[in-house]
């Protein structure tokens, strides 16, 4: 089985790649070849792993990387230009979030035209597709993205549905919430403060949070989201009522509750170390999340972290 991951050097991509090394299994099939795509990839690839370093926004390079191996059985498209950066650099976000996604989907079309099976195509979408949120979000909540990133992710979801309808890919688009805890890095993600809060308070360091204590958000641990991505490649679409675009189950919690649980898990006076300095833009984007119902994904076998303590314990776990 040949698996390809875009954005393989990223936070999610690295963790997913470790679960899909040659010899591991994806469902009932053994991975025999793994292709990793990103701007730069660390170290020498082990046997059966191919590193492709280049710019996802360069269509010619991307086509060459896709055509450099055997037919692809499963493709995980994680690469993207995230929220803050997408707002500041629209041309870059268009090339990566739209044009590269289209190139990847059209590879599936070409693979089918050549007589091979359509690849399973797992598209990492985002809860940013919702934009302003109503009092309750469920599977039928309309999408009204308020940022370029969310708009581009919504377009990708529609393409996944359309290419699947045509039989060119076996697509599944999953809307991922915040993933914790990301390592410190300049990723352009406005939600990075959530990971910073956990990391700093766990270490007993003071932290200024750009929300009110009662601000509520949705988030999952990294191990939880990796499990969900793997499941996305394997679940029977019939179990979700034929829906290929799913909002993933996640936890909803207040920032003050997160701080208290970090202190309890890591044995620090976390609640006393937080200074609350609300930024209206950050609060509006990441601190007013209502209750969430995800019956379609749950019927298809997707699961959230067990509770907030489980999320915090896994958020900084090694590996």
UniProtKB/TrEMBL annotation:
Domain NAD-dependent epimerase/dehydratase, first and last residues per copy: 3-207
Keywords recorded for this protein, A-Z: Carbohydrate metabolism, Isomerase, NADP
InterPro entries linked: Epimerase_deHydtase, NAD(P)-bd_dom_sf
Top-rank taxon: Bacteria
EC number: 5.1.3.2
SUPFAM superfamilies the UniProt entry points to: NAD(P)-binding Rossmann-fold domains
PANTHER family (UniProt xref): ADP-L-GLYCERO-D-MANNO-HEPTOSE-6-EPIMERASE, NUCLEOSIDE-DIPHOSPHATE-SUGAR EPIMERASE
Protein name (Swiss-Prot/TrEMBL): UDP-glucose 4-epimerase
Taxon lineage: Bacteria, Pseudomonadati, Pseudomonadota, Betaproteobacteria, Burkholderiales
């Amino acid at each position: 089985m040949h698996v390809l991951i875009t954005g393989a050097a990223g936070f999610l991509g690295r963790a997913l790649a470790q679960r899909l090394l040659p010899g591991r299994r994806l469902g009932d099939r053994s991975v025999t070849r793994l292709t990793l795509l990103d701007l730069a990839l660390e170290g020498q690839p082990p046997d059966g792993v191919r590193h492709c370093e280049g710019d996802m926004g360069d269509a010619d390079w991307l086509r060459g990387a896709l055509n450099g191996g055997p037919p692809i059985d499963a493709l995980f498209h994680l690469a993207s230009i995230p929220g803050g950066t997408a707002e500041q650099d629209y041309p870059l976000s268009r090339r990566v979030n739209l044009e590269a996604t289209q190139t990847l989907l059209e590879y599936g079309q070409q693979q089918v035209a050549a007589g091979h099976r359509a690849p399973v195509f797992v598209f990492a979408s985002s809860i940013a597709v919702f934009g302003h949120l109503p009092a309750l979000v469920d599977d039928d909540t309309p999408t009204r993205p308020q940022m370029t990133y969310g708009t581009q992710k919504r377009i990708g979801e529609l393409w996944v549905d359309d290419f699947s309808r045509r039989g060119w890919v076996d697509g599944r688009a999953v809307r991922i919430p915040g993933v914790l805890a990301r390592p410190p890095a300049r990723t352009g993600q406005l939600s990075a403060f959530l990971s910073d809060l956990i990391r700093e308070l766990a270490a007993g360091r003071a932290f200024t949070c750009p929300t009110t204590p009662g601000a509520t958000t949705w988030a999952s641990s990294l191990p939880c989201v990796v499990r969900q991505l793997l499941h996305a490649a394997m679940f029977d679409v019939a179990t979700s009522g034929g829906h290929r675009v799913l909002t993933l189950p996640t936890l909803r919690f207040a920032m003050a509750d997160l701080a208290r649980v970090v202190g309890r898990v890591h044995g620090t006076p976390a609640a006393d170390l937080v200074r609350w300095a609300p930024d209206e833009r950050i609060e509006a984007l990441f601190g007013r999340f209502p209750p969430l119902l995800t019956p379609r994904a749950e019927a298809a076998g997707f699961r959230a972290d067990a509770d907030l303590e489980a999320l915090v314990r896994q958020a900084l776990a090694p590996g």
